[in-house]
Amino acid sequence: MSRRLLGVAITAALAVTLTGCGSGGSGSSDNTLEIWIRQAPDSDSAKTAKKLGDAFTKASGVPTKVVALFDDFETKLNQQAAQKQLPDIVINDTAQLGTMQSQGWLQEVDKATLAGGDQLSDLAWKAATGSDGKFYGAPFSAQAFALIVRKDWREKVDMEPPETWEDLAKLATAFTEQDPDGNGQADTAGFVAPAGTKRGYASWYASSLIYANGGDFIKPGAPGKYVATVNDPKTVEAVQYLQDQFCKTKTVNPGAVSNDTTISHEVFEKGQGGIYLVGPYVLARFVTSIGTDKIEVLPVPKGPTGGPGTLGEGENVYMMAGSEQQDAQKKFAEFAVSAEGQKIGMNKDANGAIVRLPVNNQVDMAAERQDPRWKVFQESYANAVYAPPVPSWTPIRQDSADAINAVWADCSADVKAKMEELNTKLTQELQSQKAS
């Protein structure tokens, strides 16, 4: 048995033991509702999550314990599952739904009986849907991607906001070659890219341009089944475009092929690059660290043969299996998706938002956030593309990141040939998940 199949067998066995076993949370011995969220402990985002938990307690009388974890989040969840001590609630990425649902960790959500469920966007509900068409999470937060650009640099090199990929490449070249920071040194780059393989970042970064060109990694086939399409010419064109930035024009920040977002954020803040394709969650941080008058948010230009499109992401509230507090779980989910819960999570214009774009249509984002740059992300969300609800998106993203990173790190690599190899690998992965 392969290592991957053995892992699936083990987690399936664990899921069977979890079903019907009251967990009571990983450290709870009373009626406290334990809530896990993927955020760094003591961060501004963790503090916002605590505010949400406290507000829920005040409204419902149900005590809460908010646990903020970032590193090895899934590993720690697996450990809790093995001990039959899953938390009651997990606020986690939409892309993790398939993995958690296939392991039997999630309770099904009845959209019709979830108070406020009819106020949530259809696109957000789509990201809470499993491969069987059922809902396994309550939509909580959404985000699309856009370009955060050094406006002062763009004005220094006397160029207009890019409207095409060719314009974008020219702007990146100008940022690299024309000393936009005026220090007399060749120490600036055009693109800031988290292009490493850790947690699939190279794939994550490339996906917005792939979607902006009408490409994809996999697409639906028969109901509940998928076909690998990463060898599609539109996808190849997008990856080739980025390889050209790494290898021909050399407009990407040095060391990008080894970087994750933690390092890339700092690269942008230090003025080592001027174009950052990223989500809205860092906007408030950059406003503070760089200066509000120095940055702007611009939409990702439509690709030459497709688009428009951008990566769509977000978080769902997952009600975990095995909890003895199912009524409290549902009440928390309903509070989190309510207008009040969404506003708390948005945290206005301050750093620490855990609701990036609200999913509740009763929330007026412009009334909550005065920074008009958020509107660009909101408008981009209309064409956002979420990871499909395959049983496990994680290995697909990781395999894609490994292949894409390889063609950026090795300038002699043939992009089309590498994408053909990746397509075969993704087909095999879909077969192993019985999703082909």
UniProtKB/TrEMBL annotation:
Record GO biological process: maltodextrin transmembrane transport; maltose transport
Protein keywords: Signal, Transport
Keyword Signal part of the UniProt annotation: yes
GO cellular component: ATP-binding cassette (ABC) transporter complex, substrate-binding subunit-containing
GO molecular function: maltose binding
SUPFAM superfamilies named in the record: Periplasmic binding protein-like II
UniProt key word Cytoplasm: no
InterPro entries (alphabetical): SBP
Family of the protein in this entry: Belongs to the bacterial solute-binding protein 1 family.
Protein name: Sugar ABC transporter substrate-binding protein
Native source species: Nonomuraea cypriaca
Lineage, opening ranks: Bacteria, Bacillati, Actinomycetota, Actinomycetes, Streptosporangiales
